[in-house]
Write a structure and sequence with these properties.
alpha/beta, single chain
Amino acid sequence: MLTIDLTGKHALVAGVADDAGFGFAIAKALAEAGARVSVATWPPALGIFKTMLERGKLDASLALRGGGKLELAKIYPLDAEFDRLEDVPAELRDSRRYRDLGDFTIGGLAAAVTADGGVDIVVHSLANGSEVKKPLLETSRKGYLGAVSASAYSMVSMVRHFGPVMPRGGAFASLTYMASERVVPGYGGGMSSAKAALESDTRVLAYEAGRAWGHRVNVISAGPYASRAASAIGFISEMIDYAERNAALPEKLTAEEVGATAAFLSSPLASGITGTVVYVDKGYHAMGIAVDREGPKL
């Protein structure tokens, strides 16, 4: 019997701040496959996340299917908009939520993880676009570049910083969305451009990281899902409803399905897969026209 076995591996999931998104589901799936799991959390959300864990607010979500619960090896601070501490504006670095965290940049995270024994699997589960509700024509240059920086370049930076210090044959994965290749009105602020860049970068990084260190780099294109972060878009329920009614499999996507895919891509079973966009969206990406004529259920 083929099984996903990550025993003895250390996995880092960047972008986990609650139990509601894909990042948390991926962390659980990796743990259920036997990996030791750490997460990296955005500094403004770090205190709340740790408090919820300490007070047992997430105990039900932490339960693993095989018994026991997800025990995070480490929780690191990470602001993926910065590569080095000297790049961080003084007012942010000295602010209440950041000043006591040490080096919370991507470079600092890589150094901290390496000092703690290293990592074999890195999952990039983060994105941010400050103007996501604005149409592209109304998006400022600053908002556009900020979305690409936080949501796409951060993956490039993570591969650059972690690649040289990971054991040969490591696995990287990130998360994208269909707006990278098709128009999703309302998903603005440069986020569609950021996702397109992320997918293009995945192919180039797969080549460069593969030749340099033997690492694999893939990206999961997940269907719409009502995480707390996705709720910032403002019409996530309509997106989910439309996708569910028009997908090849007309049913809701679960975070566990995305988590299982990430675990598979991180495992030796996927040793021949790199530079690939893997769709986990109930087949919605395969559809050319809407098949539901009833209109959105608002």
